[in-house]
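Support reply, case 0932

Customer input (verbatim):
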Amino acid sequence: MDAHYLAPLFAPRAIVVFAGSSNPEEAASPHAATLLQALKAQRFSGSLQFVSTQTSGTLADLMEIKADLALIALPPKEVPAAIELAARMACQAVMVLSSGVDSDQAAAWHKQARREGLYLLGPNCLGFQRPALGLNASTLGQLAEAGPLALISQSGSLTASMLDWATRNGVSFSSVVTLGPHGNVSMAEALDFLANDPQTQSILVYMEGIWDARRFMSTLRSAANAKPVIVLKAGRHSAGQAAARTHSSAMVGNDEVFDAALRRAGAVRVKSFDEMFSAAKCLASRFRPSGKRLAIVTNGGGPGVLAADRVNDIDLALGQLSADTARALKAVLPTTASLIDLIDLSEDATPEHFKAALEAANRDHHIDGLLVIYSPKPGADPDAFAQTVVACKPGMSKPLLTCWMGDSTVVEARVLLNDANIPTYRTPESAVGAFGYLSSFYQNQQLLQQTPPPLSALAKPDIEGARLVIESVLAERRKVLTEMESKSLLSAFHIPVTETILARSAHEAMMIATQLGFPVALKIDSPDISHKSDVQGVALNIMNGTGVRDTFNDMMERIKRLRPEARINGVTVQQMARTRSGREICIGVVTDDAFGPVIAFGAGGTMIELINDRAMELPPLNQYLAHRLIERSRVADTLGDWRGLNAVDMDALERVLLRVSEMVCELPQLREMDINPIIIDEDGAVSVDARIVIDSGPHVIGGRAGAYSHLPILPYPARFELVWPLRGGGEYTVRPIHTDDAQMLQELVQSLSPESRYFRFVSSMTALPPTMLAKLTLIDYDREMALVAVYKERQAQENGEIVERERIIGVSRYITNPDQSSCEFSLVVADDFSGKGLGSRLMESIMDVARERGLSEIVGLVLTNNDGMLRLMRSLGFTVKAYPDDPDFRLVTHAL
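Our regenerated output:
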């Protein structure tokens, strides 16, 4: 069960080819001829056989031909027969190489493949390449050079162009995979394989759309947690989106929302073909910055200034030496050198000066990365300068990028830098852009680590009350809430609102206004008018009772004239929210076709459309995510001490965002929401107006229907947290794992006896590698679950003080199998807690979670000599039987 389920497709040991003939000149189709030429151009490391659908022989003869993968390049009418023959030959995967196949025919082939238990890549794809295996199962041209990059693409023609570019630029690949528009093996599945492929260090993705946002996000988060993922997406603008939708037959969502999704998944987005490989080159250097302060070391002022301008353009910061470091460095540099802003070593700089500057900048805590720019000078040796940078690299702890300007005189220097795996670029701007990708990767990785629960630690909202409001509106066959209803919904989630009272007559409005205190605002209240200002249904700053009376009458008369069919409940009266230092902001919710609900934040007020200030984040939020969302908006610059105004209460603003996140998570009927304006100052935040649109039923975006099926990222499932008594005294907590558990999980593994570690991991390792530790702690709760048993123990410190610390004493885990109906489990318990009922409790708990997820069977492999685990399995009702693939294991199964 260690091999990936797509290994028969992408790492086959034996292949059968259905192409009508083994001779390209007699092939069944142009695709078949190209495929045969590609297969014969190099030697595949495994077994390769050519079979015809017209072959004669018995079933026993067919079963003698065993293979992992069948490559099918035949006319459409012959494909079903080839799929059936592949199944008879015990193949586990097939690839159909074709073009122009419609969705109905593709669906029929997929149905047949599922019935036969086969994974099907294609149709309408140009195949795949696995250079390390010598396998070119494609019509993409010659086999790429073997290397660390993997490429997944939804466009075959673009892939062929990229491979041609890569060949000329020395870029090499571990895998190249093209996906058709009606494919059974999706982007998510290909990503999952490459995330677990040891030959792949970075993953490049070209995509035009997605089919299942939940599954895509789940797999992308897992892949980006393991290795850098760089995404180039077509359709950034409306015309491109329409073309992408037509080309890929996939759902294309709003581009800003897609940006937010990639950030949250920990991936890096690029905007062009060149930028994709530039980012890949930089991320392959394995350096990871801790910020966005880039220091520029140069021997020419002009190129350095160009680089500094680009730093400002893409929201990086120019890294500058501290005063002490600058003073010490200045003493060993030429007198013409300048350390103000740039580290400009001047034209008189020697390789030794470059070395001194690099070492000083590397030690300085005010710098996160370094860019070295070399400009050719008469009599200078570019190679010597490059060799100095190469010699400095082993001692560098920060990202190091280079730009050797010029052409013929610096060719050898660039070769030296490339050979040392130091990213080098031809222009200062492209080098700065590459550091921008590094910085984005680091920042997005911080977002990736966040998996907040649906409800914050704030006071519990009145969820049932909010649902009753929604049900009453839907019962009236309405979708747009009135202002009063909208504010009731906000109040149920403890979002501060201005006091609003409905008046049904001018006299009633006067009395309410007098009680509230002037000035007041009047707004029409109608279920049929969602944009009140369009019909002049809003009046502000009314200073007395006479003004209230006249405004009420004028407003009612005007609305009846402009919208005679509208139902009018009356006019709401509210006191004007006046504050000298208040800023107007807007918090909204939009529902994207692909990714579901998204939270938006930006400047508010009547100029919102003109200002167009909007930052976006996927729910659920925690305080860190809320803070980062605010930071990305343009209005954030005005929220501190600004133009004589006091800084606003940021905690109050973040609390409102957390409350909106709770609304989105708990109210799947919510489709749109605009809380505009929210007035925020040093004393807090208050919502002045709100517009909410609902619909019946959740907007399911993928995965199984059920709790939170409208969200692309499942929240932390806090409902599974339970406290249990420990046999022999004490208690422990069983809860889902999260990223903060990495160190405790490592300590558990290190504390196990060699035998216990071998029973769990079938390995003699004494500690979990960092990549494996990350994979085990940052999980997607949609497709897997890990429950940890946490015990609080008291320990005496050296000074005699008694402290309490948490310790993980057991872990149960399941991962959903590709059939989406069964799962595979694992279990480990600390040696000193063995025999206390912990294993039974963890297994029963993980089975309960799998049952809730709708899975029907849980399975596992147990070493034959692991008597304790086998006894536990039998006591829990598992069936224990021989495992045919390996006699050292027993297969244990239990129906859920």
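We compared this against your earlier run and they match. Two observations from our side: The chain has five domains: 7-283, 293-448, 450-498+577-702, 499-576, 718-895. The mean pLDDT is 88. Please reopen the case if you see a mismatch on your end.
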